[in-house]
Write a structure and sequence with these properties.
By secondary structure, this protein is mainly β. It is 0% helix and 65% strand. The chain has one domain. It has strands at residues 6-29, 35-53, 56-71, 76-91, 94-95, 105-121, 127-149. The protein has a four-stranded antiparallel sheet with strand order 5-1-7-6, with no helix packed on it. Strands 2-3-4 form a three-stranded antiparallel sheet, with no helix packed on it. The mean pLDDT is 86.
């Protein structure tokens, strides 16, 4: 006895991997003059791209560190600038191994742009800048989905209205709804 339903495979693009990584890094900048104090430290001109790398996604980027500081016993000020390059390996917390590797596309989003948390002067005149950054990444690829189909299209000539009437939800208890929706 055979079932009236059959299974078919559909090939489609889908999110097959996701990951997120927060990190704190420290950069050292040596200004041309020995700083007396730090007046400000900013990260600007952030640029990055994402590439697939083994079981994760690498975010490769650069940004400029600008340090406004005083020197010569706080009588002069200047801005020291330095461009920093980085490679951040973001592991995938979810990965569907059934995806087709030849169709992989990766993306990264800076959920927290690099920003200065702290800047301090060391005894030898160098400035240590602590920077926080966070990335969310996705891997999109072709994958197979299995769907059940009704052979012969028994209901093929029927039109289905999947819209909703306004009154459809009046009797729902809002306390039972999932907060994440």
């Amino acid at each position: 006895m055979s079932s009236k339903y059959q299974s078919r495979e559909i090939i489609t693009k889908a999110i097959c991997g996701k990951g997120r990584k927060f990190s704190t890094v420290t950069h050292t900048v040596t200004p041309p003059h020995k700083p007396s104090s730090i007046l400000g430290a900013w990260i600007i001109n952030h640029q990055y791209e994402a590439v697939a790398a083994g079981d994760g996604i690498e975010v490769i980027g650069t940004y400029d560190i600008n340090i406004w500081y005083s020197y010569d016993k706080n009588s002069q000020t200047e801005v020291a600038k330095e461009t920093v390059s980085y490679v951040e390996n973001v592991p995938l917390s979810y990965l569907d191994s059934r995806h087709r590797t030849s169709t992989v596309e990766v993306t990264a989003e800076a959920t927290q742009e690099p920003s200065t948390v702290e800047a301090s002067v060391s005894g030898d005149g160098r400035v240590a800048i602590r920077v926080e950054r966070e990335f969310a990444v996705e891997l999109v690829a072709e994958t197979k989905l299995n769907v059940l189909v009704v052979p012969g299209g028994e209901d093929g000539d029927k039109d289905f209205d999947f819209g909703s009437e306004l009154g459809d939800y009046e009797d729902l208890d809002p306390d039972l709804l999932d907060d994440e929706l």
